[in-house]
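task queued by scheduler; priority normal; single chain, no ligands, no partner chains; default sampling; output format set to structure tokens
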Amino acid sequence: MKLRIAIWSGIGFLVAGFWSLYFLPTAADIIAKQPAVWSIARITCPIALASRFGIGVSIYGALIANAITYALVGLLVETLRHRAHTVA
């Protein structure tokens, strides 16, 4: 179970890394011209919601926060999955 949670965390880190590389060159142009892409980024990278409140987050902070968020989601999913297998 620890390995699966670590995988969830790694996926969260990679997702945030992808978005940081994608938005790095011209974030303002991409956000203005492609609102669907920005919506997907906000869904898959919850720390992006901080930008709505004017809170600046560094790329490293976003990577760590997204990895932690995905690890917590993974913990929840894997716990529920484990309980479903033990009950059935």
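post-processing summary
- The CA atoms of residues 3 and 46 lie 23 Å apart.
- The helical segments are 2-23, 27-33, 35-44, 59-87.
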